Amino acid sequence: MKLTIVGGGSTYTPEIVDGLVRLRDVLDVGELALHDVAPDRLDALAAMSRRMLRAGGHPAEVTTSTDLAAAADGAGIVLVQLRVGGQQARLSDETIPLRCDCLGQETTGAGGLAKALRTVPVMLDVVEAVRKANPDAWIIDFTNPVGIVTRALLQAGHDRVAGLCSAAAVFQRHFARILDVDPARVALDHVGLNHLTWERRVWLDGEDVLPRLLAEHADRVAPATGLPAELVRRLGTVPSYYLHYYYAHDEVVARQQEHGVRAQEVMAIEAELLRQYADDTVAAKPELLTRRGGAHYSDAALDLMISLLSGDGRPHVLNVRNGSTLPFLPADAVVEVPASVTADAVAPLPVDPVEPLIAGLIAHVTAYENLALEAAVHGGRDRVFKALLAHPLIGQYAVADELTDLLLAANRDHLPWL
Ligand code: G6P
Q1: How far, in Å, CA of 384 to CA of 266, rounded?
Q2: DSSP tag of 166
Q3: How far apart are CA 122 and CA 295, in angstroms?
Q4: In which region does residue 323 sit, left (phi positive, over 0), alpha (psi from -120 to 50) or beta (all else)?
Q5: Among 91, 180, 200, 228, which is most exposed with the fewest C-beta within 10 angstroms?
Q6: Which of 363, 331, 333, 336 is nearest to 349 (CA)?
Q7: ipTM of the complex
Q8: Cα 265 from Cα 248, distance rounded (Å)
């Protein structure tokens, strides 16, 4: 099979190559096609990937292209992990909102909207190229904001799309470590939207052990949420790390204003990773990659590829079309829940009724995502303003107006309609 990575010049590519090497007996990849718009990054990551494959005894050939059509041609699976504007754009997404005392985060709040505005038009080009090259190809999207991007891909008429996030896999490992068991024995009742999820039950061999985890180990569970253990115990569910941006918004903003934002740390990590990738004695995934949020994302991505290719029917937590899964959302919303995976389709599994504490925020952010997608696809200052006004972390017209102007000015080079 030909596996194409769009955004192949990303520093995450060795994460995927590491997975390919580990799973070479189960996942048959004959060609790894890297696509990127930056030829220097493409060359560096292709060389690093070749060294890793060779060292791991993997026979796949690595090809490179800056042309989407050529990269997509003949691909069975297209994995998309691109970042329009690079880390510099992320830095502006994370710092501009702070000027208005709003959260500085790459996917949540105003920064997430800016990222969606830049990313969706490029993703529509990707889906177009894939549809022309091979309408049966699967697109796995790891590009943020995953919920909005997945919805854009589905709306473009390509059904074979799965949005992927490492959040559920991270919690599965986290709980397994606390329980001191193999992660494969742990399953989650994981519900919500991308970067807006809660773990409502944690099954160990079929038994819900979350009440026990919260009663006995809340102090070990809570750090993964960014929230106090006492709050997590009171909630009785485990919110994802992205929920602390809502539940402790002002606290987080004050901290960011004083200490800076994540983009600055990531830029330093990336510079060092690229230095290591350029060293032709390095042929293994660097330890430093574990300091990125998407560390181990190949576990989830490759496991999903195995199910898509074999049709083994195993469930995966994915971003998929809602249908009637969460009845209080539109059918075409994208939700992040356990989904059944066959060779032909991914479909959400039934979800137990969602309690108001969670449902309200899910519905609110879904409405924002809908407006954000409208703004990204059709452009226009008014659409951007409305998406910001609809976001639960913004909500005031004066702030939404100011942020609209600031974000549009900063993203002028990346918005086709400006
Ligand atoms: C997790 C999420 C990604 C997110 C990343 C941030 O892996 O699944 O959606 O982009 O963390 O990591 P970073 O190292 O870029 O801050």
Answers
A1: 27
A2: S
A3: 25
A4: left
A5: 180
A6: 336
A7: 0.94
A8: 21
**Cα–Cα distance measured from residue 223 to residue 170, given in angstroms and rounded to the nearest whole number:** 13
Site residues for ligand 1, CB cut-off 6 Å: 144, 165-167, 262, 266, 292-294
Atom 16 of ligand 1, residue of closest alpha carbon: 293
Token readout for 201 is: 């039950």
Per-residue pLDDT of the chain (418 residues; tens, 9 = 90+): 999 999 999 999 999 999 999 999 999 999 999 999 999 999 999 999 999 999 999 999 999 999 999 999 999 999 999 999 999 999 999 999 999 999 999 999 999 999 999 999 999 999 999 999 999 999 999 999 999 999 999 999 999 999 999 999 999 999 999 999 999 999 999 999 999 999 999 999 999 999 999 999 999 999 999 999 999 999 999 999 999 999 999 999 999 999 999 999 999 999 999 999 999 999 999 999 999 998 878 989 999 999 999 999 999 999 999 999 999 999 999 999 999 999 899 999 999 999 999 999 999 999 999 999 999 999 999 999 999 999 999 999 999 999 999 999 999 999 999 9
For the CA of 90, the closest atom of ligand 1 is 15
Give the pairing of strands 196-204 and 207-208.
antiparallel
Ligand 1 centre distance from Cα of residue 283 (Å)? 24
- Reading the block at residue 202, the tokens are 């944690």
Question: Quick one: which atom of ligand 1 is closest to the CA of 194?
Answer: 9
Q: Which of 79, 88, 144 has the most ligand 1 atoms within 8 A of CB, as the residue to mutate?
A: 144
Q: How far apart are CA 370 and CA 59, in angstroms?
A: 44
List, as one string, the DSSP characters of 344-372.
Answer: S-EEEPP-PPPPHHHHHHHHHHHHHHHHH
Query: Measured on CA atoms in the order 377, 382, 388, 390, is the torsion positive or negative?
Result: negative
The answer to whether the beta carbons of residues 139 and 75 sit under 8 Å apart is: no
Q: Using alpha carbons, select from 276, 258, 277, 274 the residue that is nearest to residue 266.
A: 274
Of 325, 97, 95, 295, give the one whose Cα is nearest residue 193: 325
Residue 303 one-letter amino acid = D
